[in-house]
Amino acid sequence: MTEIEFEGRRIELDERGYLRHANDWSAALADYLAACDGIVLDAERWDILNLLRRHHDEFRIAPPMRLLVKEVGRQFGPDKASSRYLYRLFPEGPAKQACRYAGLPKPVSCI
User: Fold this and answer.
1) Is the pTM of this model over 0.90?
2) Among all residues, which ones are annotated catalytic?
3) Region 2-101: CATH code
4) Which of 6, 31, 66, 96 is the most buried (most CB within 10 A)?
5) Where are the domains of the chain?
6) Beta-carbon contacts of residue 68 (< 8 Å; ≥ 6 apart)
7) What pLDDT digit, counting tens, does each position of 42-72 carry?
């Protein structure tokens, strides 16, 4: 387990950098975690994070990659319906990295 100091609070992370407690999540924390990885959460990335959070709220699980690609295409247009597009936004892996920033557990399908 790892702890980080953020806005005067101690935030617990697991060994892979995912939040231990979902209620610690905030947009500011997402920005901070992404910045630590050298990523700026622009509008395109926030679209994906919000999509992941909505899906998780409804189904209690992050979508598998194939479903994520399909949903991105449905919501944001066919030009964005590809894993290549998502990897451009989240180079460490769209599901894994985006879920970490979105404050969600590590997706089951991620190693």
Assistant:
1) yes
2) 110
3) 1.10.10.370
4) 96
5) 2-101
6) 51, 52, 86, 94, 95
7) 999 999 999 999 999 999 999 999 999 999 9
